[in-house]
Amino acid sequence: MITVEFEDVYSPVGPCGNCGKDLLLEPCGELRREYEAKCWACGNSRTVDLDFQEKYVKRLYPQVQSWRILRPSREFPDGLLIFGDNLFTTTEKKRAITEKLLSLKVPQSGQMKIEAALQEIEDREEAIDSYFRAHQIENAYHFAAVHHKCGIIDGYSPLHCKEMVNWISADPNGLFVEHFNIYGLVVKAWKSCCEKIRSGKTDAQNETEIRYLFVEIFRSLDANPFEIWFQMERKIYVHDQTLQPDAQIPALLVIEIKSFFAEQEYNCSQAISLVADDLHKLEKYKDSFKVGFFLCFTQKFSKNRLMRKIPRSFSYPVRVVVEEG
Description:
The protein is of the alpha+beta class. It has helices spanning 50-60, 91-102, 108-133, 137-144, 159-164, 174-178, 182-199, 207-220, 268-284, 303-307, and strands spanning 14-15, 22-28, 34-39, 45-47, 65-69, 80-84, 165-169, 226-228, 236-238, 241-243, 253-260, 291-298, 318-324. The strands form four sheets. A four-stranded antiparallel sheet has the order 1-2-3-4. A hairpin with a 5-residue loop joins β2 (22-28) and β3 (34-39). α2 (91-102) packs antiparallel against α3 (108-133) and α7 (182-199) crosses α8.
């Protein structure tokens, strides 16, 4: 069960390299099982990889040690990443040793000692990679930890390794599956909702039906203790507590949904005006919510036509997600 408190609704995963605003997670890929980090302000995105994962964890938990192993293989194309409290080495220590080895200031006698230390690290990396690929996880943890006695070599309890090594990661998305917040769940549910409409697997033909479909998909996401409803009062239910967005909105979110089906009699200027009106509603509450959403499904207009007069960046966290039918 994922435990998400109210303050976790808006959960940045890093700063945007383009504008400095916050990056938020979005599902991507055909099956929506991978994630990208996307800026809410300028739309700039970057791939979530193990390097990004390492920075994310270190920012959340500076006391945690991390060890990045760059040994790409067919099974683990991104290499491995280790987190723990007492690792054999860390990314920073290995980098310092490598830089020292390349330094011209180190005497010959000292250079041999540094080379031996680097070789021991690389031998351990090879062992960890080999054991991890062979699914001999306890052995991988053993070689990731500092020198110690345990059941793997010396007859002591192998749990001692696990106390020092918390996690070995090969999947860049693995951590974010466990820490996926309401922001990401909303986007994931909306993408699934639009895919069902496009594929003809649902007969939703107006905004009311889309809202019900969205709620159904949102509630079907496993292991998430959230319920969100779009009734006249626009109430949001989180952990069995009822909050009204217009009155008790702090740390939560606001969602506006708009649809333009092929059969509806909207022209493009009317549609653009309706989009602008919904975004204006979000702006009205910009100091009161964590993340605002404008979700739009359109069969009648292209995304570029519909959004050509709409700003692409905002002074508050809001995601504009337009799906074409």
